[in-house]
Amino acid sequence: MTGSTESGTTPAACCDDSADPAAAARPGARPDGLWTVDEHLADVLAAVGPLPAIELQLLDAQGCRLAEDVVAEGDLPPFDNSSMDGYALRTPDTVGASDAYPSVLTVVGDIAAGAGELPAVGPGQAARIMTGAPVPPGAGAVAPVEWTDGGTGTGRPADAMAAAVEGEEVRVLRPVAEAAHIRRRGSDVAAGSRVLTAGTRLGPAQLGLLAAIGRATATVRPRPRVVVLSTGSELVQPGEPVGPGQISESNSFTLTAAARDAGAIAYRVGGVPDDAARLRAVLEDQLGRADLIVTSGGVSVGAYDVVKEVFAEYGGVDFRRLRMQPGKPQGFGRIGPGPGVPLLALPGNPVSAYISFELFVRPAIRTMLGAEDVHRPVVRAHCPVALRSPAGRRQFLRGRYTASDGLVEPVGGAESHLVGALARADCLITVPEDVTELPAGSEVDVVLLGG
Predict the structure, then answer these.
(1) 3-class secondary structure, 218
(2) Could you tell me which of 124, 98, 107, 90 has the C-alpha nearest to residue 163?
(3) Closest residue by Cα to residue 204 from 372, 57, 63, 366
(4) Is the Cα dihedral 212, 215, 220, 224 positive or negative?
(5) What pLDDT, in 10s, does the model give residues 401-450?
(6) What per-residue confidence (pLDDT) applies to 442?
(7) CB contact at 8 A, 319 and 395
(8) CA 131, CA 359: separation in Å to the nearest integer?
(9) Angle between the 362-369 and 37-46 helix axes, to the nearest 10 degrees?
(10) Quick one: which of 51, 295, 309, 396 has the most CB atoms within 10 Å?
């Protein structure tokens, strides 16, 4: 948390738009100096897009989304192979086989996985075969070893195959259907078929499929690199002594974790004091590795806020007020040379910062990823308690949602410093701008968090 005065009970100086005379002159400013949540979000998303596609080694592509469809060049499996340890044979030779009258077959060879030369199987013959090994010519099925005596000559079911001996015979104790226990060539993936579509997120199963069809690389939208930093001279790192007027810095941990949860590669920068030169140096150091920068603190009209001062030097960063609670003060723009790096400046109060991230930063990250599911899911639920909300503000209350009965209840109060209540919440209860009171039992929109 930093010198922001934005909270659940915002002081008049922060609420009064006249406290910021430049508000009406800023690009895109509204007549009353206030933006709606939807206007601000649209402005953010209009300024970002999917990152340019790159080719990565498979494991480096984990978590990325495909930039193109993937078509299999060959069949999978690439050849007929056995799904069991047992004996490859001709099915007519097992007609009527039983424990009392087994089919006695001559074993003509062993076939291990990866075998090249295969023995041909003729009438009255079988080949010992291992799981994954290619099916030899002439064989139409595989008898699992449990359906045989394992080549022991005992005529009793075996759970393993005996060591090979010259002139070995195997007794098959039941009929075997044609194609039984054979994985046919192309039965999983046929050559020329589309196996993955553009936009697919590459997780373990998808990466395994790419490897299985012989792909060593993937063309993907890379995960955006997000730099997260908090500002405020009152901040100390967790684990360090907390002196008078100081607090343990938490926003950068929350926001870095949230960025990773959204799919980004996130870098946490420790708390930066309210010193323009120090903040400027940190930004210059981080610009080279950032696709997006997220800051918290210093966006209110506090006398010691240096964030605006430093960002003003870059130009292109607009500080604005939103019709929402918590999270009214926001900053957005680009900094750095050329087109610049997108930057979202969030309030310093922990709940305000986190809710602002969920509403604005997360959709930006998901857009840069090329994801289709940019926004958190929203459901309707009934709230069993009455709710109050300030006029003209879209309020986001922390809540607990129970899907089984369609109920949602607030957790904690509306103040933007209540991190304990935030940790217990799994959703945000939304109260529209034009609503000041909702009676108990009202139906509300619920933004589902996590997962």
Answers:
(1) strand
(2) 107
(3) 63
(4) positive
(5) 999 999 999 998 666 567 778 889 999 999 999 999 999 999 999 999 97
(6) 97
(7) no
(8) 52
(9) 30
(10) 295
